[in-house]
Amino acid sequence: MRSVSRRGLVAGAAAVVSALVLPGEAVARPLPSHREMRGMWIATVANRDWPSVAGLTAAQQREELIAYLDTAVKRKLTAVILQVRPTADALWPSPYEPWAQYLTGVQGQDPGWDPLGTAVKEAHRRGLELHAWFNPYRVANHTDPSRLAPGHPARVHPDWVLPYGGKLYYNPGLPEVRRFVQDAMLDAVRRYDIDAVHWDDYFYPYPVAGQTFADDDAYRRYGAGFADKAAWRRDNTDRLVHETAARIKKIKPRVRFGISPFGVWRNQATDPAGSATTAGVQTYDDLHADTRKWVREGWIDYICPQVYWNIGFAAADYAALVPWWDGVVRGTGVDLYIGEALYKAGDPAQPAPWQDPAELSRHLTFAHGCRQVRGHVFFSGKEVATDATGAMARVVADHYA
């Protein structure tokens, strides 16, 4: 996620234990089968939203999480999208990967409770959907494998990992990597009553000037028959999406699969089928993610493009991109939600429209005229809660009465 469908603290361990959900435990879910999406992302990577810092007690972590769920209810939202696999680790007791470092400050250290299990139970208790947000390939926000937990799969299989742009990534070109990351993510589908599997915009990494993603060996092994490396990379990403979609439906047919890509598939100057934009990044070309294809093939249940620009922004106008996506999903049965940059509201580094607390409300008003738009998701939880400029309150007052 860049901040870049079909369908006070609690004391005492008892408060934590009472909220735990055992894997497979049935939970009452009085949720309609289809309703407007009013969502917020809760980012755990680098403690962006939750937990506020690493090393809180289990009770403190739980209290902060519950506060976010209560905020969602207060803001009249219908769903939370909780990041549960931020850096090839887990916010549940996974047999595949270590506990996330953002809980205790030490990757692999048991936090003493089950955050994902608790989140599912408490979200459903409040009538909220819980979408489990996974990042498929990011291993670490550094390039030193020795800093990973002992026994981490990336240390056991160093040939799976590539450094790039100051980070470590699993190599998407290796079939064994694709199978492993699917297994790791789908463990949560099997064990918990989540409503959706959710991915963000990170597939192949965003380009870094002067650096090369060194997957030549994998291309030599597996790239025969492709016109070039870019086509092979896109096929690798297609395989990850298609295979994951099929496996989700086999495990739990009711669980939805949604993806939230960078908002520009391709510029019109690059491809006549693209949007009337001049964006510096195009998912098809730069991230090797053919997001339009996934919709047209019906591999996913919803798409939530991150249309993180104001109305009238020259390079990527909200008022140009939302109708373009509306046209992409039309007739496919895939639901369209719009990712909204709440974090930009009031930021002095952003263009003038973002200084007006009404900008986001204007987004929803505009999108209401696009018949395929089924809702909006706000980045991210911290801004939904603090709402320093009142932009979120304005959205609620104008659209969620």
From TrEMBL:
Keywords: Signal. It comes from Streptomyces beijiangensis. This is Family 10 glycosylhydrolase. InterPro entries: Divisome_Glycosyl_Hydrolase, GH, GHL10. The keyword Signal applies. The keyword Signal applies. Residues 36-350 form the Glycosyl hydrolase-like domain. SUPFAM superfamilies: (Trans)glycosidases.
